[in-house]
Amino acid sequence: MTNNTILPDVSEGTAEPSASRVIIVIMSVGLVGLIAMFSNIFGWDNMPVIGEIVPLMENLGGSGIWYYLIGIAVGCGMIVANLIGGVLSD
Amino acid sequence: MSEAFTTAIILLTTFLLFTHYIQKGLGGMSAPLRQFGMFLLTKAAGPATDMFQEKEGSGAKTWMQTGVFWLILAGIGGFLSAWHNYDPSGLDSLSNIGWGYDDGSALAYFNEVAMTTAIFAILLGGALVAHSRTTGSPLASEANASMIAMAWTGQALLGLVLCTLDHWDWITYGATQMALYGLVSALLVMSLLVNSLITLGNRGKSPVSVPSWFMLLGLLALLFSRVGTAFGELLGWTGTVWVADIMASGWVPLALMFAVGYHVLSHVTGQPIWSGSLTKGSMFLLFITIPPFFLAESSHADSFTQSIGAILVTLGLFPVFAAATNMVATIRGNAGAVIDSPGATAAAAGALLLPLFALLGYFTGLNVMVGDGSMANAAETVNSSFLYVIGGLFALAALFHSYPLVAGKSLTGSAGAASWLLIAGGLLSTVLFLMSDWSENALIEAGVEDTSTGLSGFALTGAFAFYGVVIGFIIAGNCVVKTLLFGNVQAASTGNASDISVYNMVEGTTSIRELFGRGVGVDTTLVIGESEEDAVGGSTVITVSSELHNDEVDEFPMNFDEDLVTLTKWLCGRGTTTAQFFAWADVDDSGEIDLFEFSNALSVADIADLPPWDIEKIVGVMDINSDGKINLPELDIALLNIRNKLGIEFIPYEDEVVEEAEAEEVDEAEEMAEDTTEAPSKSNLKKMKKAELVDLAKSMDLDSSGTKADLIERITQA
Fold first, then answer.
1. Which residues does B457 contact at the CB level (< 8 Å), separation at least 6?
2. Identical fold, B2-486 and B653-717
């Protein structure tokens, strides 16, 4: 009972649970996927593809698959960056 | 189909003989075959083997690292394939750099090859870790295992290139070429099998572990399959090729999945495998039935053969259910540990989902194999999902559990996210793809001409769900890289448990880290100031508990090397202390015995004349600090451990010295006594009185008359 008077009503821990990263990753992937997908599911084609947003990629990014491929490229780039970083740091 | 029955009989006989000789050994042929096998592994490939490390665990690591490369490729290929079911023109903008999409068959073939290679490489790496740890010995040749891993990747790439060149009509990749390719592949598998069998021989009298059984039988099945395919293609035996395909696509991946699953779940939970009967049942029935995956159409066979095949497929469900149940039951009571470990989470999910996929594969596969083939699209989806989801989950189990174990590093990265993305994405995408397939079949039955329009939603959501699988694979690959490069070094043998119950220390200095390095645990009793042997050798006495060995400690195996035992007996019999032997063997006085010096010492002492790889292995057993050489404490610990365990009596050399000294003293006394009976010198005689000279002359039977000078003259001349 005494501690209740010392502690604030709301407190936040300093340690980060590892499960929170799992939730963040799943939600991020899910949301990005849904955004890229809803226009096709509901027949609403106003969702711009990359080719319409970036003029230089007009001929390249003409399909929604490129949103996903960017994620794959970032992931593979992350692996390569870690490899290079690890080798150089050694 | 008579070839199929003939092949099955030969196969069954081979398996029975193989298991018999693994259990019973090869008797007198073991040693020469082992020598020959080691020659093949280390010397036959020439300098190629020398390009790879012989460091413990490097073979398994190389397999898993090459597997990660294929896993990411297969994941990306799988997503492209899934997306193109929705929008075949999605990547048409890449047509100017050679991209072209046909009916999807080329991409499907690439995905199957890439995913099969990935699963085989990663699961084999995980199984090799289990095999090595349960036999208590590194692989017979880690360098050879690494070399074969690279060669396996090379041959898979070569196969894809050959298929592409054949597709473009640049070369002909026919039956003969495929047979040759199969034989090369068989040689690689043969090398792996020999390596694993020699490693198994180092286990002493311990029983063969469950993961080792599954791995060895899986490798034998793959070897038989490659040889069967080669001869079947050459001789036109379609039945043999059919059996070989079943083995390669059904038996091998399942056997390796079980090997990894049993190891990971039992190790993480710290509990033994739940049921021995289910284990034996799954092992025995797996290799005599037909697994319900990748079933091929068999309308060319007669109805009797088809019926036998269908019965065997039905029986093939048993080992799958038995192994899955056994693995899930193994985690009973310690599910918390499974949730905390991403590798165990993946293995448990794989075990839980496997029966579901087996049932789906059973109904759709039988429809293809002996039915009208109306569910061929669903069977294809189930087979593909089996590889990606179930195979992927067990592969992640190996990457997240076995890889850190063998690398000696802590798992680093978002491994949990990878496991859960694969579970969620894989399950959801499979359900959506199957819904699409069944809807398509329903539309076809209803007479709808253009089925693709109404099914695009399934294809798109399925591709989106499958994206989770791809991201999971990429995160897994990143975890492997981060674990290797940035993972914290795990302090080996610093667990709470230790094999050593009592550790006696002598005078000098040491550190807690050094003691941990020698296998001392936190519960080990330290005895300071007592010594069983005399102080000359600086002895250290170790008592090992009779309990089962802790998996983390491998410095003091229960079964000692035969040559080390002979050396210990030889030293004890001669009364030579370890320090004396060490000083004798250390020719260059460097304070350490290297491989050459140790080999030379054993050879000179007529104990053993061993090849370099055996010397390396014996030194490895004693080499606690892993510097490739033996120092005095390491030698002392190893030999005293053998002495105490086997009760070899030390006969001190000092006793013989005393006896010899006593004998020498007696000899000297006798000599002195003899000297006293001899005539003294002339000067001494002159000092004596005449009466004494008379007595001396009488004792010497001489004439005692005459003067003192006469007596002296007579005595000196006598």
1. A40, A41
2. no
